[in-house]
Amino acid sequence: MIRILHKTRINFVGMRHVFFAISGAVVLTGIVSLSVKGVNLGLDFTGGTMMQVTFNKPVSTAELRSVLNAAKTDAVIQGFAGGTSYEIKVKGTQENVNEKAQEIEAALKGLPGGVTYTKDKQDYVGPVVGHDLAKKALFAIILSMFGIIVYVAFRFSNPIWGTAGVIGLLHDVFVALTAMSLTNREIDLVIVAAFLTIAGYSINDTIVIFDRMRENMRTFPKMPMGELINLSVNETLSRTIITTSTVFITVLVLFLFGGSAINNFAFCMLVGTVTGVYSTVALCTPMVYQWEHRGGRRK
User: Where in the chain are all domains bearing CATH 1.20.1640.10?
Assistant: First the structure.
């Protein structure tokens, strides 16, 4: 493995109370933000107005999005073959369908080059994620968390490790949700996919370090738990930095140059990439030490 750091001796366990305080402050900020501001739910959750139009000449998605954004109409655009027909959806209620349709039509008048359009269809579309689907999704997430605890407990012969890993990934998803709330970015099904990606990324990084801890327990059976955790985290630090930097740079490029369609997704992933590494080295492993140390045992 390529190493960019050699024999680091950072005392992560010794700084655990500082890390816990930082995470506590961030979580408290998130609770306040979600209580006061809430979240900006997208059309997938709220429903809205759908209008299908056909232009007299081909219009690019970028041109269409530009005039809609200029009119402050946050729309979801879906094009059809030929580049002349589009389906435009704007978040709203069933009562203001006509109002939202008028906003779309006013924005379309800003298209350059003498482009005209014919309105083919106008209707209200309900939320993709209904109440029943949301309940099923929540149930599936709870089951998956339980499955992670069971898997990690079986693999490392200790349920505490699995619980620490789940707490870490919940922390990462909550921090990403907090960032979306503070910046008032819209949450739709794409962002839900980003949350799940962050959870998978977080637990994967945690398991890598847990695996090194298990190996070091066999190699150094009499080493105190605190020293063993610090050794394991420092030994995998190069791998963690290289992996995270690769993901971070890729997502940063998408955030800067990917366009507005994936900007929110890239922003969420940027936050999740950073907090995923932080939770692994600064929360999960110190939590294992804290629980094992309080219990007066080392498994």
Answer: 16-41+130-295
